[in-house]
User: Which sequence fits this backbone?
């Protein structure tokens, strides 16, 4: 082993210290050329969109966002209200008023949605629905209108076609048309032209991120009792793992709370409307048919919970404010739609209803996780 003098060993030591200091200075001057890039967030386990569309950079944009509940395939529901007062004024009797208590206002419906075409760039969904509503009164003999409506099955049988068209990574649009038969018809005396109601909507939107989608458009519907066109704003946003909002303003606004992948809570309001054509058991003067316009606002709390992989149930309760429940002469109603005569808007029966608490139970089927996993591959 070579032997170095003290002077040589000191020189080596100084060179080593200089090299270390030079290296430290060079490292301190290195700057990253770009900010760090992180992988996209993974979707929640209860999200029903394909992996290529939610939770990572999307090739095709869609209106839904991470955190929304599973898509519903078949839905069954029953709803019941507490007692509430009704005051009725018949226009052809000089405004004479009668009043009683509604002891039963119960509703039930079943809905189904079938994906007729399901591709990343185009989704076509066929839907159907059957609804039924009934009334009972404490003293139906108080007025002919109550006797005409007592235990009458007000039915809605409908079908719809919805198209969801992702345009690119950001833009999308939704179009829907719907036709329903509304009233107290039976299969033996069904007249389509008397009971047919049509509605539709078109919304164009932007997918800003997997957590934020919004759009603007218009609806033709009976949400406010009579057929009308009004603007709508769709706003779906997930703020974090727990909170989000789902809305189609002005018809509904809902705040969402994700408890876990199998439990969701909701709170907000909905505006609902109905339009029925009914035949009177007892004529009101010269009237033998009426058009009933129903409008209401519900302030609600809702919980949804998974029972099994493809089976969920929902519980909903709140307060229903009855904004309108008036009846119109069918001929005058048709004239009012055309806007020809201001007299066409005159009510044949003017009802004022009180508000009431309500409660509903719902069961629905969702796509199984195994199927969603296969679709994502």
Assistant:
């Amino acid at each position: 082993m070579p032997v170095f003098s003290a002077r040589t060993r000191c020189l080596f030591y100084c060179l080593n210290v200089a090299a270390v200091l030079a290296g430290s200075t060079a490292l301190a001057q290195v700057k990253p050329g770009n900010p760090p890039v992180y992988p996209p967030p993974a979707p929640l386990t209860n999200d029903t969109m394909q992996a290529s569309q939610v939770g990572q950079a999307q090739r095709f944009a869609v209106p839904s966002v991470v955190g929304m509940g599973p898509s519903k395939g078949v839905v069954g529901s029953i709803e019941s209200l507490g007692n509430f007062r009704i005051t009725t004024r018949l226009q052809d009797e000089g405004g004479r008023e009668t009043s009683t208590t509604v002891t039963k206002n119960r509703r039930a419906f079943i809905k189904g949605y079938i994906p007729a075409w399901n591709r990343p760039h185009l989704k076509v969904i066929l839907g159907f629905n059957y609804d039924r509503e009934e009334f009972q009164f404490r003293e139906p003999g108080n007025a002919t209108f109550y006797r005409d409506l007592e235990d009458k099955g007000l039915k809605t049988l409908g079908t719809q076609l919805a198209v969801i068209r992702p345009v690119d990574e950001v833009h999308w649009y939704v179009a829907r048309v719907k036709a329903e038969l509304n009233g107290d018809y039976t299969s033996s005396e069904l007249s389509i032209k008397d009971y047919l109601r049509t509605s539709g909507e078109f919304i164009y939107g932007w997918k800003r991120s997997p957590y934020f989608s919004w759009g603007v458009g218009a609806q033709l519907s009976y949400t406010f009792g009579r057929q009308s066109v009004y603007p709508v704003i769709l706003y779906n946003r997930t703020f974090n793992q727990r909170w989000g909002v789902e809305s189609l303003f002005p018809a509904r606004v809902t705040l969402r709370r994700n408890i876990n992948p199998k439990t969701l809570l909701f709170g907000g309001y909905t505006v609902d409307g109905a339009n029925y054509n009914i035949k009177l058991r007892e004529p009101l003067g010269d009237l033998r048919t009426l058009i009933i316009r129903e409008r209401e606002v519900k302030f609600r709390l809702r919980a949804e919970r998974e029972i099994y992989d493809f089976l969920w149930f929902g519980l909903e309760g709140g307060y229903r404010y009855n904004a309108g429940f008036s009846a119109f002469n069918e001929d005058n109603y048709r004239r009012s739609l055309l806007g020809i005569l201001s007299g066409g808007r005159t009510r044949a029966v003017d009802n004022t209803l009180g508000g009431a608490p309500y409660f509903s139970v719902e069961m629905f089927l969702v796509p199984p996780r195994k199927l969603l996993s296969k679709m994502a591959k």
Observations:
- The first strand starts at residue 74 and ends at 81.
- The two ends are 66 Å apart (CA to CA).
